[in-house]
Amino acid sequence: QVQLQESGPGLVKPSETLSLTCTVSGVSISYSYWSWIRQPPGKGLEWIGFVYYSGNTNHKYNPSLENRVNISVDTSKKQFSLRLTSVSAADTAVYYCARGRKGVATITSYYYMDVWGKGTTVTVSS
Amino acid sequence: SYDLTQSPSVSVSPGQTASITCSGDELGDKYVCWYQQRPGQSPVVVIYQDNKRPSGIPERFSGSNSGNTATLTISGTQAMDEADYYCQAWDGITAVFGGGTKLTVL
Questions:
Q1: How far A23 CA lies from chain B's nearest CA (Å)?
Q2: Residue A108 contacts B, CB cutoff 8 Å
Q3: Residue A105 — pLDDT band, cuts 50, 70, 90?
Q4: Mutate which of B7, B26, B85, B94 to disrupt the A interface (most A C-beta within 10 Å)?
Q5: Which residues of A touch B96 (CB under 8 A)?
Q6: Distance between CA atoms of residues B53 and B99, nearest Å
Q7: Which among B90, B94, B97 has CB closest to A63?
Q8: pLDDT tens figures, B9-49
Q9: pLDDT tens per residue, range A30-65
Q10: B42, A35: Cβ pair inside 8 Å?
Q11: Chain A, 59-78: which have a CB under 8 Å from a chain B CB?
Q12: Which long-range contacts (CB under 8 A, 24 or more apart) does A73-80 make?
């Protein structure tokens, strides 16, 4: 049974770097897509990006966050991590990690997230 | 950037059919999935690749996608189906979410 657990500071100061880790259990961290998604209070979901490890590491990021975000993977610890720099109050949200499923079917490519962590709340405030 | 639009809210009586729509430019040319998010919980995928149900999702959940509109249909809606529902598509570069629809079962 695949399980994901987010961890990291619940409070980050403005202009500093938000760092979160997701620990994966029940499945290999290789050859899967590992995503971060966030949800500001009372608002909808926003995809941050994913990392894919297969010996090499590949990423896709939301263009709106691309210049501030990095997602990395540590295969020895079965973890993947999010770093978001220069945070502001607008980055206050529940942050989820999730496993993504990506492939090509009849008409085009698809991507969806089939296993999610419980989420962790991050508040940006001085 | 690619945008997906959902109605903010839908109401349905227990036992009736609920339809939640998601619209986007030529959305029928992309694959859509749907997530259910109950209050205080993480999202759960209920439909992927337009109309496939993951293991454990009740048969009353179904999906379709054509033209500019994808639809999540819940037949015989139950009180436990009251939740926020989000559509999501992959535009080749990013995963894009709709704004979400709050389904009320009254």
A1: 16
A2: yes
A3: confident
A4: B94
A5: 47
A6: 22
A7: B94
A8: 999 999 999 999 999 999 999 999 999 999 999 999 999 99
A9: 889 999 999 999 999 999 999 998 888 899 999 999
A10: no
A11: 60, 62-64
A12: A73/A29, A73/A34, A75/A29, A75/A30, A77/A23, A78/A23, A78/A24, A78/A25, A78/A29, A79/A21, A79/A22, A79/A23, A79/A24, A79/A29, A80/A21, A80/A22, A80/A24, A80/A29, A80/A34, A80/A51
Contact A63 B97 (CB under 8 A): no
DSSP 3-state assignment of B7?
coil
Q: Both ends of chain A: CA-CA distance in Å?
A: 39
